[in-house]
Request: fold
Amino acid sequence: QKDDKADDVKVLHTKTEQASSRSAKLQEEIAMLQSELSKITKSQAVLDRLRTKEKEIFEASKAKAEKGLEGVQTAIKMLKDYYSKGDSTGAASGIIGILEDIESKMTTYLADLTSDEEAAVAEYVSMSKENGV
Reply:
C-alpha cells in the first residue's frame, strides 16, 4: 500500500511537471502571438493613415480636375455660340479643336484618377482583411 501511494505520488508529480511544461510553452506562444498582433495593429494604423492621406489627395485632385474640365467645356460652348453667330474663321475652329483635345485629355485623366482610387481602395480593403481588421 505504501508503494502504491508512492507510485501515485510519482504519477501525480509527473503529470504536474508535464502540465507546467505545457503551460510554459503556451505562455511563450501567447507572448509571441501578442507581439505579432501588436506589429499587425501598428502596421494597420500606418495603413489607415496612408489610406486617409491618399483619399484626401484624390478628392482634392478630382475636384480640381472637374473644375478644370467644366471650365474647358464652358469655353468650348461659349466659343461655339460666339462663332456660330457670325463668320467662322479657320482660327476659331483651330482653337475649338485644341480645347476639345484638352477636354478629351482631362476626361481621360479624371477617369484614370478615379480608376486609381478604386484600385487603392480595393487594395486597402484586401490588406485590412488580411490583417484581420
Observations:
- The mean pLDDT is 92.
- The CA atoms of residues 29 and 35 lie 10 Å apart.
